[in-house]
Amino acid sequence: MVEDDRNLLETIKYNLNKEGYEALTAVDGAEALEIARTEKPDLIILDIMLPVIDGFEVCRILRKEMTAPIIMLTARIDETDRIMGLDTGADDYMTKPFSLRELLARIRALLRRAKISEVKLPEEQAILTIGDITIDLNRHRVTVKEQPLELTAKEYDLLVFLIQNESYVFSREQLLEKVWGYDFAGDTRTVDVHIRWLRQKIESYPANPKHLLTVRGTGYKIEK
Fold it and tell me: At the topology level of CATH, where does 123-222 sit?
């Protein structure tokens, strides 16, 4: 948990400990990087407005080094902050003030997803392909035209879900429920952001995609 408001930090730490989590804390971006690299946490809660190194940069650095889910916190309701957080690799975000019950629910959902992804499958079930895209579920590895592809944890989850349900159309709300694991407070913009970033990574021409398609007025699907 990275937060420069010490009262809020201690409140959240107390509640995390009460729920059975071991909570490590940092009050600035530099300390956050040091602790994360040393302790290898299962999940990171990261404020944006931090001393020394801001949350966006901390998120960008950590995403290159580890796959732990990251929840970003913002005191501003400006959509730009939220989109930037997702763009730098965050899996989720919450706007202050927030409910501790909701934060705990989001933590459980992200950790549950991370745990499911660690289960090893028989080799014949572990490979997903669609066009030039191949996913090795056991190794958590994605390739496009045999070239390795770096995805955030949530981009990976979204791509796997869509390929496992090839040709089915899902609304944004359904994707929030199935991929994020809970009601995302009605803010479906996060789905659009992840779809956009996935297209930039898996499509030869993102503006004219051939696999990850928009179904106007309904949602998204993936096709061969």
Answer: Arc Repressor Mutant, subunit A (1.10.10)
Assigned fold of 6-116:
Rossmann fold (3.40.50)
Q: Write the secondary structure of the chain as one string of H (helix), E (strand) and C (coil).
A: CECCCHHHHHHHHHHHHHCCCCCCCECCHHHHHHHHHHHCCCCEEEECCCCCCCHHHHHHHHHHHCCCCEEEEECCCCHHHHHHHHHCCCCEEEECCCCHHHHHHHHHHHHHHHHHCCCCCCHHHHEEEECCEEEECCCCEEEECCEEECCCHHHHHHHHHHHHCCCCCECHHHHHHHHHCCCCCCCCHHHHHHHHHHHHHHCCCCCCCCCEEEECCCEEEECC
pTM of the model: 0.64
pLDDT, tens digit (0-9, with 9 covering 90-100), for 114-124 = 776 666 656 66
pLDDT single digits (tens) 30-79: 999 999 999 999 999 999 999 999 999 999 899 888 888 899 888 766 66
What is the reported pLDDT for 160?
92
